[in-house]
């Protein structure tokens, strides 16, 4: 069992690390099996948090309105991580958001990690759900604030230690840290159809948004179109 590592979790505005943003980071630094430091921070996103995300996480727009921006928080979190192994539940999800955020700030974030979800999928094949909540319930690990970053990170650290206690001796390879990989998808330029629709919607709704048809990406155009259509419906 690792005696020193960083367990972490992020809450986000959606599921796509190239379109959505981190709104909360929670992490704990373990040294010699004990929590030495904690990292808990909201991040103020560039767009509003949707009601579905608030319902899932409990994080409201009011909670993040005084928070610092990504540019300030991400470098501090990278310093916090030092050269540690990362531990997470479905860790590649959290890592992908952190990787994209770091890249956006011109910083590297190349890490090795241990995924408690992958371990659970191997050692608990018969369990219907391998979610963090289901595993915490199975092992009687208390998590009174599920879907809040720090509490999920703490629960993940406890889950990792529990799984290692029961299964590492019989399957040590399963608990070996592995390189975390996330490759940024190639940027696709907006289609002519998207650009035409965007211009038409802006004209019809009297909306003025600064954008460049030469550089706008497919995802950016799609997001703008959705925002205009949703605004027109409300």
TrEMBL record:
Cross-referenced CDD domains: DEDDh
GO CC annotation terms, alphabetical: cytosol
Gene3D superfamilies in the record: Ribonuclease H-like superfamily/Ribonuclease H
GO BP annotations listed: DNA replication proofreading
SUPFAM superfamilies: Ribonuclease H-like
Molecular function via GO: 3'-5' exonuclease activity; DNA binding; DNA-directed DNA polymerase activity
Keyword set, alphabetical order: Exonuclease, Hydrolase, Nuclease
Domain of life according to the entry: Bacteria
One Pfam match: RNase_T
Record-annotated Exonuclease domain positions: 4-169
NCBIfam families xref list: dnaq
This protein's name: DNA polymerase-3 subunit alpha (Gram-positive type)
Organism: Muricomes intestini
